[in-house]
Amino acid sequence: MGVEIKIEHLTKSFGKSLIWKDVSLTVPAGEICVMLGPSGTGKSVLLKTIIGLLKPDEGKVIIEGVDIASCPEKELYEIRKLFGVLFQDGAMFGSMNLYDNVAFPLREHTKKSESEIRNIVMEKMDLVGLLGAEDKLPGEISGGMRKRAGLARALVLDPEIVLFDEPDSGLDPVRTSFLNQLIIDLNAQIDATFLIVTHDINTARTVPDNIGLLYHKHLAMFGPREMLLSSEEPVVRQFLNAQRVGPIGMSEEKDADELEAEKDQELPPLPPIPLQQEPSSGIPRKSQRPPGQWCAENGVTPPPGSFAPNMSMAPGA
């Protein structure tokens, strides 16, 4: 079972440049969460702070009762063993074949025998659909295969938290769809806590249990998928429905003149909330909520056509 990530009043700057301020949220144990935001809003910085690669200026990141923002290096080293990370480009060692790339964390951090390592590596490569490709070099395979190899390596230490830094980056829509299904299936099998940074709106609308949105140096909203997909909050509505009308512009924020010109424009209706993607087995994940449950519990009427099977996303213009 995954573990909870509790973030309290987190602030991070680089020199005089404020990245985000007073960010607080709880990533529930065993659930899939997506973090969105316009480019440059510090999504990847947040992942690096969560794993302790960057220190925040203020605030806490509490995992298993330990604040990794202030704990001793030795304790941080032990906490990091709970993590697996899929980097944007897979971060493969170009001179090693896929087998040795996946085996690397086991050889570095455990005292397992080579026969034990082989069993684990082959199991994880089978899990991501790469059996038979273990002798290939990273330069000999497609970007999608490198992502899956990176995911196999992230899983070899049986992590309780898996961080995904833009897993869809550089992938076409078909391979992104396959990767999304793999993420769903893995969560169903290992019950780890997943946190995904992405720009892909279809992924955000169909994959996670919870969604967060970073905007203008703060966390605009974080909560259950249905809460954000039915939200009338301008920045959340605009981003999650890929609309032009709203506070986000080409350079992140629109100026006062642009917003004034838009104020009388009629917003397109919210698109229907799609069904959440299910595991290939058809058996719901432990953290998966019945369609419409959050809306019903909170007295929210979802957009017409929500939770219909086989629907595709059709965001407003």
From TrEMBL:
It comes from the Bacteria. SMART domains: AAA. Residues 5-241 form the ABC transporter domain. The keyword Transport applies. Residues 255-317 are annotated as: Disordered. Gene3D superfamilies: P-loop containing nucleotide triphosphate hydrolases (3.40.50.300). InterPro entries: AAA+_ATPase (IPR003593), ABC_transporter-like_ATP-bd (IPR003439), ABC_transporter-like_CS (IPR017871), P-loop_NTPase (IPR027417). The keyword Repressor does not apply. This is ABC transporter ATP-binding protein.
